[in-house]
Design goal:
Number of domains: 3
Number of strands: 16
Radius of gyration: 21 Å
Distance between the termini: 16 Å
Helix content: 25-40%
CATH topology of the largest domain: Nucleotidyltransferase, domain 5
Shape: flat
Bound molecules: adenosine-5'-triphosphate, magnesium ion
Order of helices and strands: EEEEEHEHEHEHEEEHEHEEHHHEHEH
Structural class: alpha/beta
CATH architecture of the largest domain: 2-Layer Sandwich
Largest sheet: 5 strands, mixed
CATH class of the largest domain: Alpha Beta
Strand content: 25-35%
Length: 322
């Protein structure tokens, strides 16, 4: 095959690129290092993070996928160009790509993403909503007339979709994801422990001990922060058992969205869900989130084995079926 076929998932936190013949080629932070004087993008992803650490006077970080996408379109396409080169090198023919897009993008944002991908060196761009990509990535059978529910938790949003014969019959997108879990932990540490912690620390707490299943084994973590009273550095030991309470607010919003989508669904398909259960995907999923949802909803909830890469893997499948 002369022309490469790629799946691309441009997330607010992570970008992934997958090819039809070689599988996952790249998964890196969607961040660019920009020259402060010239505004030129000089590096992307992990290398951008390192470059800015080494040259903080000359370079700044830019996360171009965070809204407004349209404003940083040039940075987005320059960043994508670097990632594409890293993933596939120089190719004789420019690749074609299926790009996953969130369901709540405006037309202007969708056009901006499409233009950025074209400008980055893709010859033909196809777009498909994230939940459908994820569904293909986890192997949902799009020919079977059985309703299936998919919940995708990213960094900036959660998308809930009721899927029937390859189409979304109901769906909802809410602005709650990994970033909001981090914010909830920052708030909890302030309220419960009188400790200021930054975003990076909050994310580490979430990743290391953020398990929300009641049955999870208890873990503890020493957390460094700034005491609210003394303004001095202080270390607090926290337990994984505190996480369910700390994260209850964003978890409840996700639960409400799932219930709302199920409620919009007709009786036949609701009966299907009772059998097929709920599939979870996305990098933002918390440890034990399947068990938590299982307990409160009484439905069989499963975390996909390829939760983080299902979207990009499904995008390639969608491209092959065009
Ligand atoms: N082990 C972990 N437990 C919980 N969250 C995690 C873990 N590892 C990474 N994350 C979170 O996953 C999120 C990134 O997930 P993902 O790659 O799906 O997001 P994205 O596609 O960039 O976002 P979006 O689709 O919302 O734009 C981040 O918020 C990160 O903190
Ligand atoms: Mg995503």
């Amino acid at each position: 095959m002369l022309r490469k076929s790629l799946g691309i998932d441009i997330g607010t936190a992570q970008i992934s690129i997958c090819s039809s013949d070689e599988g996952l080629l790249l998964r890196e932070p969607s961040v660019a290092a920009v020259d402060i004087d010239t505004d030129e993008v000089v590096e992307a992803g992990n290398r951008a993070l390192r470059a800015v650490e080494t040259h903080p006077d000359h370079l700044r970080l830019c996360w171009p996928v965070w809204d407004p996408i349209v404003k940083s379109a040039d940075i987005l396409s320059a960043m994508l160009r670097i990632f594409l080169y890293r993933a596939v090198g120089r190719t004789m023919l420019r690749p074609q790509a299926m790009v996953a897009i969130p369901c709540d993008l405006t037309e202007a944002q969708t056009n901006a993403v499409e233009d950025a991908v074209l400008a980055a060196g893709i010859s033909r761009v196809h777009l498909l909503e994230t939940p459908l990509c994820a569904a293909l990535g986890v192997g949902f059978d799009f020919s079977s007339p059985v309703g299936q529910l998919l919940v995708h938790v990213g960094a900036s949003r959660t998308e809930v979709a009721m899927i029937f014969i390859g189409e979304m019959v109901n769906h909802m997108t809410i602005p709650v994801g990994g970033t909001q879990f981090d914010s909830a932990i920052i708030e909890y540490m302030r309220r419960r422990h009188g400790l200021y912690v930054g975003k990076r620390t909050a994310e580490q707490i979430k990743i290391r001990i953020g398990n929300v299943a009641k049955s999870a084994e208890e873990k503890t973590l020493d957390v460094k922060g700034r005491c609210m009273k003394t303004r001095e550095g202080r270390v607090v030991t926290i337990s994984s058992k505190e996480m369910l309470g700390a994260l209850m607010e964003p978890l409840t919003l996700i639960l409400d969205a799932i219930v709302a989508v199920i409620e919009q669904t007709g009786d036949d398909m609701r009966a299907d869900i009772a059998k097929t259960g709920v599939m979870l995907t996305g990098g933002g999923l918390l440890g034990g989130m399947d068990k938590f949802l299982d307990e409160v909803m009484g439905l069989r909830v499963r975390r996909a084995a390829n939760a983080e890469t299902a979207v990009v893997e499904g995008a390639v499948v969608a491209l092959s079926r065009l």
